[in-house]
Structures are given as C-alpha cells and as structure tokens.
C-alpha cells in the first residue's frame, strides 16, 4: 500500500511553473497539464534520475527507450569529453573523420549478416526519411522508376518528418498536417487482444494471415509501383504491439516474391531491447534496410543510422558519371558528428563488456513474470512483453481516452518511478542494466498505483 504522507511530501517538492518557462515550446507535451505541475529532471546516473530538489526517480523507460546502458556511464562520458576537446566538428560532405569509419565498421559486426553499409543521421525520424529515399532511388537506379509507393502499417510510428508520418499509422500525428506523401497504403496492425491477449513474448495467432494484407495491396496497385514496406518489428510507441508468429517471415517472403524492399524500423527494437542485438536478429528475418537511432549512442548525443544491404549501396553509388559528381544526393550537416561517433563507440564497448545486447534475454522471463502478475488488478485489460520491453493496457475512462494511463504515469512519478504512457497503455523499457530488485520496484510501484483503482 502507498504511504499517503510520502505522496503528499513528494508532491510538495514539485517546482511551480514560472513565467521563465513560457518561452520553451515543449515537444509532444500536454503543456497545460505540465504547467500545472512541472516535472523537471536535473541529474542522472545508472538507473536513476534526480529532480532539482534531489528526489530520486527510477528510470523505467531508459529515458525514452534510448539509454540502454544506463545513465552517465563513465566510458561514454569520458569519450565525449575527450572528443569535444580534440575534434568538435568535421564537415561530413566530401570529407570525414576517422571515428565515423571506425564506428561503421564496428556496427556492421553486430548487425544481421548482409546489412553492411551504414549511413549516419541524427535521429530516428531522419533515419526513416533516409531509408524511404534510398528505397525509391534504388529502384529508379535499376530502371524501375515506377516503384514509388510505400506501404506502412496502422499503429506504426516512424518519427515525425513528413515521410515518417505518411507511412506511420497514428491518426493523431497526421490529421492536422495536411497532405502527406502520396501513394501510401497501410497494412492492418497486429494488435489483437481478443485472440492474443496476455501473450508472453510472441503471440501465436494471426501472423501469416495479417501479412497477406500485403498481397492484397500488391494486387490493387501492382508490384511494379511499390518501392518498400516499412514496419517496426515490435511497435513500441503505440503500446508494445508484437508481431504474431510467422508474420515477419511472411512479409519477407511476399516482398521477395514481388521485388519490394523490406524496411525494419528498429529505432526502439535495436541495440538489445528485445534480448538480441536487433529485432531482425531476434526474429530471424533480415530486412533490406534497417533504421536505427536511440540506443546507438545510448541517448547521450543525438545519432541515427540506416543499415543497407550491400546491393543497395552498390546500385546507388556505382554510377556512370564523372568522379567528382555526388552519387547519392542526401546527407545532414551532422551526419556522423564526431561527438556522436565517440559516444557510440564507447556505447558499443559498454554493451560488449557488460553483455547488454543479450541481457534482455536473460531477464525476459523474470520481467514477464513480474508484469503478468498484474493481471486481474483494476482496469487491466492486457499485458504484453518481450525482452526488456513490456506494456500494461488499461480500460479507457469513458469519454476520456488516455486519461487513466496518464494519471497512472503521474502517480508513479510521484512515487519515484518513471513509466511511459501511450493511449491507455503503460509502457516500460528500462535500461538493460536493471537489477531484479529494480524490476520488482518498477512493476511493484505500478501495481501499488493500479490497486488504488
Ligand atoms: N521510429 C521509431 C520506431 C521510433 O520509435 C521513433 C521514436 N520513438 C522514431 C522512429 C523517431 O525517432 P526520433 O524521435 O529520434 O526522430
């Protein structure tokens, strides 16, 4: 049970909103609610944040699914400090710095075989738009310029740039922004609590049949018009929605049959989240392009990367033009930024030294046991998990979708635990260094809040 005096005491520590806070237009924020009770984080170490008043918060979501090795890891801190003093910036067009090559080389040692060309970006959204452009350019370079259509999926989240929201399947992120990319269709999502409710790990039902949506879309538009399919191996931001058994395999088969590229958006699922280096590794299905960000640099310095099959890279770079001509007209001022590369190299060291890319597999059943013990608590309608990511879905309050989960998030924060809400689902994706005792604290605090009804 929760000590009411503790709750009152922590609430009293919440700083009041001040006029100085008005200039900052906060991203994806219920800002009226925030202004009424700002939540500030001033410090972080390993599994914890601290508020400006010194209140300790257990980080149950690895920042925002990104700080996979935990906060302020010494090797990463040191590497970034050293790098900023040595080479703060280097232009990435027609030149480079050694760490960008070193990092690319290190990364392809842990990606699925075949994905051995790396293009650096600064975020997941940029990785997604980069991959979409690569897909269209690849087909065009092979004389198949009619292949311009993309197929995304309902409930897909692929960042917030125009390409990403076009292939993404979240109505709220699309509806106020006018026309999207043209020629985009969506597969159905794989959320099916009626058949797959309370599944531990991969759900059993409906995989191949849901993947057949792709055949129906191909029949409608003809394969010769379709560039790529993009899906998250596990949809994170829309409530941890897993691919049922056989689903990704069947998508791969249909793509191969029709010459359509398969893009996995592994911004969340990459770098150990599912108990394997990547979702592709975990599910044994290799895409043609793979988008990443977040865990690549442990969230320390913004970075993203797109991994491509060698054939795609070759097609786009072996062009018949004078040597001084740029082959692929795409890139960012901060592609392969020296600080991001230094952070990522030290991150990879930390992952390797501590076995973090597979630690989620070791903890999966402990985490699953803890989560699934919440079944039967008030308003809980589904629980889903894989590796070190899990979700508890609540029945929405009548007329106020998202409110119940948001209130749970606020109460957990007051009790010193950070979880994430998406719709009426509570998501958890702790740093991969979490201990069993901390899993107990994370899930136990959520249980205490849920028991209040
Ligand atoms: N794709 C996926 C699957 C994501 O989960 C996210 C972010 N949560 C993005 C893309 C966008 O990443 P960013 O916010 O770094 O642009």
Automatic annotation (TrEMBL):
It holds the Pfam family Aminotran_3. Gene3D superfamilies: Aspartate Aminotransferase, domain 1, Type I PLP-dependent aspartate aminotransferase-like (Major domain). GO terms for molecular function: adenosylmethionine-8-amino-7-oxononanoate transaminase activity; beta-alanine:pyruvate transaminase activity; pyridoxal phosphate binding. Belongs to the class-III pyridoxal-phosphate-dependent aminotransferase family. It is an enzyme of class 2 (transferase). This is Beta alanine--pyruvate transaminase. Its EC number is 2.6.1.18. One of its GO terms (biological process) is biotin biosynthetic process. Keywords: Aminotransferase, Pyridoxal phosphate, Pyruvate, Transferase. InterPro entries: Aminotrans_3 (IPR005814), Aminotrans_3_PPA_site (IPR049704), PyrdxlP-dep_Trfase (IPR015424), PyrdxlP-dep_Trfase_major (IPR015421), PyrdxlP-dep_Trfase_small (IPR015422). Its cofactor is pyridoxal 5'-phosphate.
